[in-house]
Design a protein that fits this description.
This protein has six helices and nine strands; from the N terminus they run H-H-H-E-H-E-E-E-H-E-H-E-E-E-E. It is α+β, with helices and mostly antiparallel strands. The protein has two domains: 72 residues, Methane Monooxygenase Hydroxylase, Chain G, domain 1; 158 residues, 2-Layer Sandwich (Endonuclease, Chain A). Helices cover 42% and strands 17% of the residues. The strands form two sheets. The chain has a seven-stranded mixed beta sheet with strand order 1-9-8-7-2-5-6, with helices on one face. A two-stranded antiparallel sheet has the order 3-4. The longest helix has 31 residues.
């Protein structure tokens, strides 16, 4: 298993898929270290240790390369969330980009509203995202939301809920600006430190919980996800339309 994982790491490395390669190198190294512990043949142990040392050196080089790309704003990270995967709460996706200099956030998502048919409220997803911003370490002062109106009678409930979120945020010194567009389709989140996150399903990539008292209802890290793709870019290296 260790050899196969490292082989995959090398393939990803050659393909310049450095983030995925780094993960495979780290997993492969851990597996090979377990093999070394279980091996009694000293010659084999020495060969394994030499290979592990080479892989560790390469993993460290990749890690430095990724950090440099982040600093230069050239970094592109893609996360593929599999169907029913867990462990992808908002902290997992956004925390590393919410640096202390982040003071302004833009959220574009057409479905920040009630969805009665699915027995869930996407407004709560937006609220949880706002809670993440309030907790820091960023110093968010302004959040811009662009969404679309709910249909029929749901519109008044949507507006009431958003106004309540706006008022609650103001208690924490955060201003929420709300705009509506009937033609919005894109889903993206931008921070004023230059990072932009595009999620195929927007903030609504979680599956409906089995019940109000089921595990995952409160903690999004424990809630199964729909399959989706997350792309992270820096606006310094994206073309303005």
């Amino acid at each position: 298993a260790g050899a196969e994982t490292v082989k995959r790491a090398v393939q990803l490395d050659v393909a310049s898929r450095f983030q995925e390669s780094l993960v495979c190198y780290q997993e492969g190294i851990d597996l090979l270290l377990q093999v070394v512990k279980a091996t009694t043949d000293e010659a084999k142990k020495q060969r394994y240790r030499q290979k592990i040392s080479e892989y560790m050196t390469r993993a460290e080089d990749i890690k430095k390369h990724i950090e440099k790309e982040k600093k230069d704003g050239k970094y592109h990270k893609q996360i593929r969330i599999e169907e029913n995967a867990t462990g992808f709460g908002y902290e997992k996706l956004f925390q590393e980009y919410l640096t202390e200099i982040v003071s302004e956030v833009w959220v574009e998502d057409p479905y920040i509203r009630q969805v009665h048919q699915a027995s869930r409220c996407l407004l709560y997803n937006f609220l949880r995202f706002c809670e993440l911003l309030v907790k820091g370490p960023c110093k968010v002062k302004t959040i811009h939301l662009l969404t679309s109106y709910d249909e029929g009678s749901g519109r008044s409930q949507q507006i009431t809920a958003l106004e309540e979120i706006k008022q609650s945020l103001s208690n924490y010194g955060v201003t929420l600006n709300i705009d509506f567009s009937p033609s919005i389709h894109d889903r993206e989140i931008r921070f004023n430190n230059g990072w932009m996150i595009k999620i195929g399903r927007g903030l609504d990539y979680f599956k409906r919980p089995q019940g109000r008292f089921s595990i995952g209802y409160c903690d999004f890290d424990l809630r199964p996800c729909h399959e989706t793709t997350v792309d992270v870019f820096h606006t310094k290296h994206t073309k303005k339309m």
